Amino acid sequence: MLDDSYPTVVPGPPRPSGIIEPRVFSMPPGTERYVVEGSGAILVRLEAGDRLDIENTEGGQVCEIVCARADGRFDPGLIGASAGGDAAGLKALLSSSDQSLRSLRMGIQARGLDLARAQAVQLFESTTPARTTEHFTATAEGIAIIAAPGGIMDFEAQDTATPLTVYIRRATIKPLPRFELPDPLADPVADVRVHSATAEAYFVKAGDYIQILDVDGRQCTDFQCFSARKLDKGVEDALDVTTTRTLMEHAYPMPGLHAKYYDQDMLPLVEVIQDTCGRHDAFALACSAKYYDDIGYPGHVNCSDNFNAALAPHGVTGRKGWMAINFFFNTGLDEHGVMYSDEPWSRPGDYVLLRALTDLVCVSSACPDDTSAANGWNPTDIHVRTYSGKETFQRAVAYRPTPDAEPKMTKQTGFHDRFDRFTDNFIEYNGYWLANCMSTAGPIEEYHACRQKVVVTDLSPLRKFEITGPDSEALCQYVFTRNMKTLPIGGVVYTAMCYPHGGMVDDGTVFRLGKDNFRWIGGSDYGGEWIREKAEELGLRVLIRSSTDMQHNIAVQGPESRDLLRKIIWTAPHHPNFDDLAWFRFTPARIGDDQGIPVVVSRTGYTGELGYEIFCHPKNASAVFDAVWDAGQAHGITPLGFEALDMVRIEAGLIFAGFDFSDQTDPFEAGIGFTVPLKSKQDDFIGREALIRRKETPARKLVGLDIDSNVEVGHGDCVHVGRAQIGEVTSSMRSPLLGRNIALARVDVAHCEPGTRLEIGKLDGHQKRLPATIRADLAAYDPKKERPRS
């Protein structure tokens, strides 16, 4: 019998795919967003009817707005406001040597504006709550200069400078391109528009810079170049990505030590100076006619044919498929060796900045692929600018603390020029360039100096947040696992910060500066965002403001650190004497005497040795370093790089975010269960219920391993009992002091007892194994922490 019933159907038309995207792609047409960094300023263009909204993002930040009409007349009435006084804050910023204000200075100079007679609209106060917003409407065409003034932060007053967020809602929505081209980095030598599905060739002199911009975001561009001198001789040696990968030992070069692209004769052609995207491809060819023919789109326009047409006038022989740097292409290889691709990571205005290392003939395409996600299903334009080699651009990689955040470029710390004396080997870490190891010593010598004498290392990338207001203690008690009610003024406590499910947001230290004054020092920007979110949800009267750029810090660590610093640290009579500073205590101090540079000194560190940290404003960093360095000569002081710092912290059993813990790891699994006083802390805190459950039914434990092999062990290596994998290595190093490989590893609780013999898998995890034993203590060095307590 046949069933003639109709199938059940979902009524109505299909619904669009649910996609949560960064705000830049979901803002209404005609809406623009800008961030004014603390102690920074921007210039924006306005037209009649445009709406200008200024948000006090973190709270407590004053704002100055200087408006000028199209004819150059200063007039606060341009935004329907009245001037409140002199633009002293803006003028002070522009008189500084801050290179981040270069484009603003260019904009002011180009318009012939004389700010000496400018009056400012003044907004906000030091007590203004976070996200307070003021609204204005432009009455005519002109510009607005928006500043977030700030000077050197008083460490006790905690008067840091923080960002403002500016939204402009255009009265007239213009056709594509949807996003305006960002201001140039300097005066351009050339501007080349590469329209969608085309390619353009251009000449660049040796030493000049090439900026390749994604105008609307999620648009790929192939780039190729030739030595002009070789072309003149009839030699067509194109940039070769295989040669480049081999020499650089990277999938594709990035700013820093491994930054150059080469031709097949190993001649360096370009160097990557800046990159705001960080995701590219150097494996696949530029798209070709055959590619489209094979997937059912014969005759489709393609980058290889576009390259041939653009390069023909330069005498370059055409090719069926071009090797190229595929900027902004999001491709990768999975564990089976299969290449995959997805939408680009690039946002509107993202760019790569190259420097020509010889005279070049270059070609750039705007990829026409509309058959896949390679261009976000919507091919758009690419823009190329070139700049004179006389300009100076710092090497930088952009990062975003959150998906909605504007990009922040890698910075030099206040101590950079001092460490630069000892090495050129700097790595990008958490938005800053840090010395990796010293060419004058090396990690083994630096390690021994830390264990035997004294070292100085740069910890400025640590994120600092000022938590102030009448509800600050209540907030800290709720967001941190440790008991903040028992933390005395002048005290420091190491703590975890958890999500409701018990996974860790971050670890770090809390300083108590007063009854209602705290300072959080952690590893990530998101820690501050998380704390601010919780304060807003609870409606607490408290400000959480970033002070990372106001406080850079060095650590002076080692057995002779106290003897060194007592020579240069002065403390006021109402603060602890330096020699009386106990472990996990801090004090405001000065360098030399009561008129010296103001600093904060804490007896803390990340080495497992007696040690201190010194916090100061970046402008004073060089002088502070020099004082430490000069006093340290009698003690054999050595600069310590990131590589040696990692060695001593692993040996001491100290954990590192992204390696030893993540948001899937609770404090017990990260080896810091002591930061969760479930019995003695009576107040509720985020994650408490989950942590009670996870402590009672643990699944994994962080243990220390002694490895009976000299073969190198790495983060992520599998740990086995027989055939079964029961854990993974989180951190590892060869201990010069112990003379063996050691590791931290997270293993199943069924195999976590001291003395348990395990095997670390290499190659595919089975073909090669290294014997290891769980030791009694997580720390291989001074497990009772007697040295830092001494």
Concise structural overview:
This protein is α+β, with helices and mostly antiparallel strands. The chain contains 16 helices and 44 strands.
Give your account of this protein's structure.
There is one protein chain. 16% of the residues lie in helices and 31% in strands. With 790 residues, it is of the alpha+beta class. Strands 10, 12, 14, 15, 19, 21, 22 and 23 form an eight-stranded mixed beta sheet that branches. A hairpin with a 5-residue loop joins strand 29 and strand 30 (504-514). Helix 9 crosses helix 14. It is globular, with a radius of gyration of 29 Å. The protein starts with 22 loop residues before the first helix and ends with a helix. The mean pLDDT is 95.
Give the helices and strands, then pairings:
Blueprint: H1 23-26, E1 31-36, E2 40-46, E3 51-56, E4 63-69, E5 85-86, H2 88-94, H3 102-110, E6 119-123, E7 132-137, E8 142-148, E9 164-169, E10 188-194, E11 199-204, E12 209-214, E13 221-227, H4 228-232, H5 241-248, E14 260-262, E15 268-275, H6 289-294, H7 303-311, E16 325-327, E17 330-333, E18 339-342, E19 351-356, E20 360-365, E21 382-387, E22 396-399, E23 408-409, E24 411-412, H8 416-419, E25 426-429, E26 432-435, H9 443-452, E27 455-458, E28 463-468, H10 472-479, E29 492-498, E30 504-514, E31 517-522, H11 525-538, E32 543-546, E33 552-557, H12 561-565, E34 569-570, E35 586-591, E36 598-602, E37 611-616, H13 621-632, E38 638-639, H14 642-651, H15 688-696, E39 700-707, E40 718-721, E41 724-735, E42 740-748, E43 757-762, E44 768-774, H16 786-789
Parallel strand pairs: 15-22, 24-26, 27-38
Antiparallel strand pairs: 1-9, 2-8, 3-7, 3-9, 4-6, 4-8, 5-6, 10-21, 11-20, 12-19, 12-21, 13-16, 13-20, 14-15, 15-19, 17-18, 22-23, 25-26, 27-33, 28-31, 28-32, 29-30, 30-31, 33-37, 34-35, 35-36, 36-37, 39-42, 39-44, 40-41, 40-43, 41-42, 43-44
